[in-house]
Every structure is written in C-alpha cells, then in structure tokens.
C-alpha cells in the first residue's frame, strides 16, 4: 500500500502531518507525485498550509527566550517625555478599540492530590482538565498563554487565538498550539503528548521535534532520548477524564510510568527484558492496584509485596 493510500484512512490533519514529515526527507519522484495528487484537493492544501505555518512559528518560538541587548537610548528632554507619554496613551486606546476584546491576564498555581482531579474554565475560554498528583502554573500575558507543567497530567481544550498561542512547558520541552484539544503527561521517565483534534508542535529537546495531528501521540523517553509516534483511536486521548484508561500493546515500563501518577513511588519494576513486555487492557484510575494484581494473568511476571509497602514486579 502506498503512503497516499494508507493516509486515506486518517483524518486530514493527520494526513497533512504525515506528508509534511515525508517532504522534509527529500521524497522521490513517485512519492512527490502522490503528494501532488493529495495536495490538489483544497481541504488538503489548507491543512498542509496550516502545518507549514505552525512549523515556521515553531522556529520563532525556539528563539523567543534568547536575551537581546538593550539599545542605548539618547537622553530625552523632560518636556518631550510628557508628549511621548500622552502619545502612548492615545496609541494604547486606539489599539484597544481596533483589536477587539483585550486579552485577560491570568496567573495561577494549581496542585492536585491522589483523588483530586479538577476541571477549570480559564479566562480565555479554554477548558483545563487536571489529573491526580499534578502540579502546574498558569501565566497568561498579552503575547502568549503559558502553562508550566512540573509533574502529572493535563488535558486542555484550547480556545483559538492566533495572536496569543498557548505553550505548555515541561522542563526544557515545549508544546505549542493555537486552538486544539490535547493531552500532556509528564513523569520521571516519559513526556507524552496526545492530540484529540487540531495540530500540535512538540519540541522535547534541542534536537527533536514532531508535528502531531488528530489521533496522534508522541512519547519522549528521557533516559533513551528517543521520540516515538503512534496512532490512536479518538476515545484514547484524555480517556482518564472518564475514570478509565484503555491501552493496547503498551510496553510494561510505559504503563508502570503512568500508574505511578496515581500511586506515586509504590510500584517498582525490575530491570531487564520485562520492561518491554507488551500489555493490553483497561485501568480504573480509582483502583490502579487492581491492574497490578492482575498482571501475572496477562503476562509472565510475578508481583511481590515488600515489607515497606511497595510492590515489585519481577519476571516469572
């Protein structure tokens, strides 16, 4: 099956993301012809143009925080200072009238506990879902909406505003959007970004980046410094909000990493090949240890209950 044929089963956003990635790798003549046929449809061309714009904005984002030298300003006469202040006031009033509703400035810190998932409506109209054991900080200004995720997981339905993009910061990583719905989970082992709809630019470090469309996930492994992408079903993105997680062929290490969000420091995983064992099933977020107890029936492992109250998963 050709890339063009396989892409037909995905959403237009996912197709655009896939073609954008291929075109950056110098496609051959056959692939280029397939892209031209796909791109000929107006809806496809619009989606592809949005990804090109997002990628260009991403380059600007990476340089946003670089310090700039302060210009040397000539001395201003006291009389002129009042004139400039008055001019600035008039200009501010004119801009406020012309750009529509002014952006609401907002700062907030939020920490949830083990059973403390929360839902918030933000001043910009976005809806923020915060999972258990999560710590984050909001800092919205006139140019950008910043969310600093220290640990844990969030899902956000972003109110569209091209003049004020939203950026999630997770350590050195950046996830940038304009208007979309997506999920971010930050843990000691992994940083995972999943997209429900729209487009997301994900930059986990200085060397790697990904453009994600609807029903796509990217997982960054801190220890390996690898970035892998997966295709999801629509119901899998942010499914923890309903109290249940569904997973298919998940590596055991990745699954335990997610379980740690609900029972921090309780589950230990032995080193070795068992970390790559694949697991499928469902998880009740209110009773995550039930899945741990069931693991020996799903894969060849044993669960050992230690004297310190922790659970160690070992190969059988």
UniProtKB/TrEMBL annotation:
Limits of the FecR N-terminal domain: 15-54
One Pfam family cited in the UniProt record for this chain: FecR
Domain of life of the organism encoding this protein: Bacteria
Transmembrane regions: 82-105
InterPro entries registered for this protein in UniProt: FecR, FecR_N, Ferrdict_sens_TM
Leader peptide range in chain numbering: none
FecR protein domain ranges (all copies): 109-200
Entry keyword Chaperone: no
Keyword hit for Transmembrane: yes
Keywords: Membrane, Transmembrane, Transmembrane helix
Name of the protein in question: Iron dicitrate transport regulator FecR
Originating species: Pseudomonas lundensis
Phylogenetic classification of the source organism: Bacteria, Pseudomonadati, Pseudomonadota, Gammaproteobacteria, Pseudomonadales
């Amino acid at each position: 099956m050709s890339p063009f044929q396989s892409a037909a089963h995905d959403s237009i956003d996912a197709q655009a993301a896939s073609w954008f990635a291929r075109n950056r790798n110098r496609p051959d003549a056959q692939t280029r012809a397939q892209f031209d046929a796909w791109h000929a449809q107006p809806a496809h061309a619009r989606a592809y143009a949005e990804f090109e714009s997002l990628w260009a904005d991403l380059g600007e984002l990476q340089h946003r925080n670089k310090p700039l030298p302060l210009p040397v300003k000539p001395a201003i006469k006291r009389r002129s200072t009042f004139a400039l202040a008055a001019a600035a006031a008039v200009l501010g009033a004119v801009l406020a009238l012309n750009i529509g509703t002014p952006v609401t400035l907002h700062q907030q810190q939020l920490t949830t506990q083990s059973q403390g998932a929360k839902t918030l409506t933000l001043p910009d109209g976005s809806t923020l879902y915060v999972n258990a054991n999560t710590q984050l900080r909001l800092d919205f200004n006139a140019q950008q909406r910043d969310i600093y995720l220290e640990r844990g997981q969030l899902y956000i339905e972003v109110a569209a505003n091209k003049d004020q993009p939203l950026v999630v910061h997770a350590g050195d990583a950046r996830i940038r959007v304009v208007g979309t719905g997506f999920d971010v989970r930050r843990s000691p082992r992994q940083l995972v970004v999943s997209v429900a709809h729209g487009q997301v630019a994900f930059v986990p470090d200085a060397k790697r980046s990904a453009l994600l469309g609807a029903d796509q996930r990217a997982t960054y492994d801190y220890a390996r410094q690898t970035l892998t992408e997966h295709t999801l079903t629509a119901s899998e993105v942010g499914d923890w909000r309903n109290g249940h997680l569904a997973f298919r062929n998940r590596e055991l290490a990745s699954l335990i990493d997610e379980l740690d969000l609900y029972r921090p420091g309780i589950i230990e995983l032995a080193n070795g090949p068992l970390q790559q064992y694949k697991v499928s099933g469902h998880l009740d977020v209110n009773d995550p240890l039930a899945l741990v107890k069931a693991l020996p029936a799903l894969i060849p492992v044993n669960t050992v209950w230690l004297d310190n109250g922790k659970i160690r998963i070992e190969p059988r």
